[in-house]
Amino acid sequence: MFWKFDLHNSSQIEKLLEKEDVTLQELLDEEDVLQECKAQNQRLLLFLSRDSSMLDLLNLITHEPPADREERLRYKFANVACELLTCDVSLINDKVGGDESLLNTLYSFLEQTPPLNPLLASFFSKTFGNLITRKTEQVIGFLKKKEDFIGQVLKHLDTSAMMDLVLRLISSVEPVCLRQEVLTWLNDERLIQRLIELIHPHSDSERQSNASQALCDIIRLSRDQASVLQETSETDPLLTTHELQQSIDVLLKNMFEGEKSEVCIVNGTQVLLTLLETRRPCVEQVIDPCSQGLEKPYTVNNSILMAIQTHLKHFHHLLLNPPKKCVMLTTMGILEEPFGNARLHGSRLMAALLYTRAPRIHHELCQLNMINLLLDLFFKFSWNNFLHIQVEHCVSAILNQPTTNGKTHDSPDQIQLETKDTQNSDKSDMFTHCDLIKHRILDAWEENDKTQEAGGMRKGYMGHITRIANTVVQNAEREQEQTQISQLIKDLPEDYKARWEQFVNETNKKNTADLNDTPQIIFFISIFLLTQVFSDYQIQEMSANFVDQFGLNDDEFGEHDSTTFLTLLVSLLSQVSSAIFETRTKERIRPFDDAEEEEDIWEDKEINYATQVKARSRFMKHTHTHARIHTLISHSSDCCLSSVGLDW
Q1: CA–CA distance from 59 to each of 22, 71, 425 (Å)?
Q2: How far apart are the first and last CA of the chain?
């Protein structure tokens, strides 16, 4: 490379440093000052490491720039100063981290009266976060000596940069023993309790949102660290405090006592959903091969479920009487009663609770008639697919319960699996009290058919209705020892049982016919599916350690896997095209009628619309085919209702 032989011309920085009266602003105004600093330009580093220069750099990122400066240049020097302070040069890190007076200058930014300048707050957070990573012991010791450091940070939590600073303290401290010491200190400062207190109807929305996000990130970071450092026996004090029944009870009281606030309910529910996560959220069906063996499912503590159970009645009331919302204009018309984000998060929580398979939770939900209420909302808000998918999850969680033969786990730190009686009660209630088949699936399907026959639009929930029906049929087919679902279907009244069988058979027949009727449909669906597969393949290749492994070495940058997949893709499409071509060549082509007299295009004659209608009908036939292709692809969730092998 050229720079190995020092063939580049001397920069303007060198010329400036030769001046005796050079100023810091002159250097910051140069475009290559950051590159020269990273390249360890010794003369530049000696200038920047002076006490006066360091003080000026810190003042630039903690004080408002002059108001009379041009707007686009107003924060230029502050931005460059932040980049220099965080460019990971040991001389600069040692200078700032080892000088308490400089640390006090930086810390003084927190002592300002809120609100903070968001841009300066990001510069401050980035600089302090870098020092926490590079000069951990010195900076942690400095912060511990400050009076109520956590209080100063939380005072400015309406700025997201302060949340990032708190998370840096939790995630960037090494070694493990020092990290445990920091976590204990943060727990002694009541970090979790103080964040929960901020999720309150009287707090502003930004502060609540940042507090909620901080709590969610703390939960995930703590669980990730616990799964990686499995050899350590020490528990995370922040996570332990967060999972206490008392902590969750305070959060739920803030959400529901007093005036209802949608912002408070949504942010609080997000924390509860994170506590109920058994795995980190990721792209569906995509597994990072480098993380296998490290990521294990988390267990949900009983304390979490016990705290939520006592407040389920409030969520039931929320679904019935949500916070007032204004009339909303949508593409489908005026919505007098919008469903709202609060009720959506409530339905998400119900699905998450059902997937824990805790007997006490299932029993309480049955007592509250929660599933029936969710099904009512499912059909009432016929165009809200966000709600539909959550209700579908709730139904699937009940129908997919595994057989346990009455066995339970007695450990107080783990959720209990449902007993056989709980399973029977849940499924029986779904079919009898909720009328899943009689007055839900069958009536909705028939009503939709009548609407479409009258020229109306297809209901927005029909795809989810089909998926729910699929779940019923699949569970009935794969039940071996326990035949409860099959028995519940057999116990239906004769007219409904006949309607159900007819519904399953006709839907299978219709879907199979739609797939096999026209070769073009197969071709376009093949392209669609293969494109989806290749998209998933690309996502899977982008693993979590991609950035660390990525390099510019041509010898190591292989393309074998991508080439192989593309070859397979082209081969499959070629086979489909060949099959369609052979099908078309076997079809009878109408020959030209030689006896038909040649038509004089210049001859004046009476216009005959029959020919035009005929041509138009041929055009409409092709248009109809493409419309059906579009319909099939857009409603790909409407798959067959038995093991026909058409789960697309």
Answers
A1: 19, 19, 67
A2: 53
Q: Model pTM?
A: 0.75
Q: What is the Cα 219 distance to its own chain's centre?
A: 16
The confidence band for 231, taking pLDDT boundaries of 50, 70 and 90, is low
Q: Which of 114-123, 246-255, 292-301 has the lowest mean pLDDT?
A: 292-301
C-alpha separations of 156 from 62, 63, 377 in Å? 14, 16, 40
Residue that has been written with the tokens 């965080």 in this structure: 86
**Does pLDDT of 263 surpass 90?**
yes
| Residue scoring higher pLDDT (554 or 485) | 485
Residue matched to tokens 């939960």: 219
Do β-strands 333-335 and 328-330 pair in parallel, antiparallel, or remain unpaired? antiparallel
SS3 content of the chain, % helix, strand, coil (to 5): 65, 0, 35
Q: For the chain, what is the mean pLDDT?
A: 78
Q: Tell me which H or E stretch contains 85.
A: helix 76-85
User: Any long-range contacts for 114-117 (C-beta under 8 Å, 24+ apart)?
Assistant: 114/155, 114/156, 114/158, 115/156, 115/158, 115/159, 116/156, 116/159, 116/162, 117/64
DSSP 249-291: HHHHHHHHSSS--HHHHHHHHHHHHHHT-SS----TT---GGG
The interaxial angle of helices 370-380 and 385-399, nearest 10 deg, is 150
DSSP state of 5: G
The Cα–Cα gap between 92 and 26 comes to 19
Question: What Cα–Cα distance (Å) separates residue 292 from each residue in 221, 297, 468, 545?
Answer: 18, 12, 32, 13
DSSP string covering 520-547: HHHHHHHHHHHHHHHHHHHHHHS-TTHH
CA 252, CA 307: separation in Å to the nearest integer? Answer: 8
With pLDDT > 70 as the criterion, what percentage of the chain qualifies?
Answer: 69
285: left (phi over 0), alpha (psi -120 to 50) or beta: left
Length of the chain, please? 648
Using DSSP's 3-state secondary structure scheme, residue 329 falls into strand
Alpha carbon of residue 33 to chain centroid: 40
